[in-house]
Amino acid sequence: MSETHEQSRLIATAMNEGSPQARALGFSTLQIGDAVALLKVPYRPEIVGDPETGVIAGGVMTTLLDHASGQAVHAALATWTSIATLDLRIDYMRPAIPGRDVLARAHCYKITRSVAFVRAVAYEDDPEDPVATAQATFMLDSSAGKKAGANFKPPRTAATGPARTGGDAA
Amino acid sequence: MSDADNRLVAVLGSIPYARFLGITAELAGDEMTAILPFADHIVGNPMLPAIHGGVLGAFMEMTAVAQLSVAATLKRQPRTVDVSIEYLRSGRPLTTYARASIKKLGRRVANVHVEAWQETRSAPIATLRGIFLVAPTED
Questions:
Q1: How remote is the C-alpha of A87 from its chain's centroid?
Q2: Structural domain includes residue A154
Q3: How far apart are CA A158 and CA B98, in angstroms?
């Protein structure tokens, strides 16, 4: 395993073990490297969306595809940087098979200076027979200037409503 | 309790993943607010800490499903066709609220927009636009 793959593996483990929601859902990374991540969520009754069918909730697919996409971005970068999801589009092709674990394969196919682009697919056995597909964009260096615990404090713009962006009108 | 109240309690109570995340909802007339209390197990980034983006997406999707159940008597739970989620601000360790606006409820398809916020309603932290397959009862 190359040095970059080793680093991606460490980041993936930290993201699965260190993220309480990922731990609560039991995410594990089966493969990582070369801008690709393969993750698994084990089937459990607690994460079902429709009790009549026993199908895993769509929201769990959202979290799995987001998490896998983030790891694919890290696997595409030479050095660690903070990232944040800008947007995420998910198409649901069919219900997941009740009782089966679901895999998600994400590929970060393009990186620019500030943005990473990812495609991902969720399936049980065959990526050609998907449960859901996703398209996501991520901001790179998203925590620039933020220290640990930054979110315990209100943002500077909280009192005045939406943050102002862009230059001045003149 | 009104019929809409009963339908709301039934739909949220019936979704195991909604219970897993701790989602509840309040109904004032036909206006529903979904509530996601902060809890350690919904965190995605423990350093900041920030709520997992996937959890916010799931919360808004369930808000849409719950709002559809309030608006109409459905034969079965709405099925999500697709969702587009925009992340505007970091989800801080606070209670998150969401409201859904049904743009169209047809015989087969419903179009729903959702906004989630924390302290300031006018500064949403995330939005969702979703398409759902629905099966309203005929009467």
A1: 11
A2: no
A3: 17
Nearest to A90 among B16, B48, B83 (CB): B83
- b/e per residue, B19-33, with b = 16+ CB within 10 A? ebbebbbebeeeebe
Radius of gyration (C-alpha) of chain A in whole angstroms? 18
Q: Is residue A153 part of a domain?
A: no
Residues B71-87: tens digit of each pLDDT: 888 888 899 999 999 99
Contacts of B57 in chain A (CB under 8 A): 59, 62-63, 66, 88, 90
Query: Nearest CA of chain A to the CA of B130: how many Å?
Result: 9
| Residue A162 forms part of a structural domain | no
Answer whether A92 touches B (CB < 8 Å). yes
A145 touches chain B (CB under 8 A): no
Range of the domain at A7: 3-140
Report the gap between the CA of B15 and the closest CA in chain A (Å): 5
Which position has the token pair 């859904």?
B100
Q: Where do runs of H (alpha helix) occur along chain A?
A: 3-18, 20-25, 58-76
Give the domain CATH number at A25. 3.10.129.10
ipTM score here?
0.91
Asked if A99 has any chain B CB less than 8 Å from its own CB, the reply is: no
Asked whether residue A136 is assigned to any structural domain, the reply reads: yes
User: Residue-wise pLDDT tens for chain A (170 aa)?
Assistant: 567 788 888 889 888 988 999 999 999 999 999 999 999 999 999 999 888 899 999 999 999 999 999 999 999 998 989 999 999 999 999 999 999 999 999 999 999 999 999 999 999 999 999 999 999 999 998 888 788 889 998 876 544 444 444 444 43
Interchain CB distance below 8 Å, A21 and B90: no
What is the domain count for chain A?
1
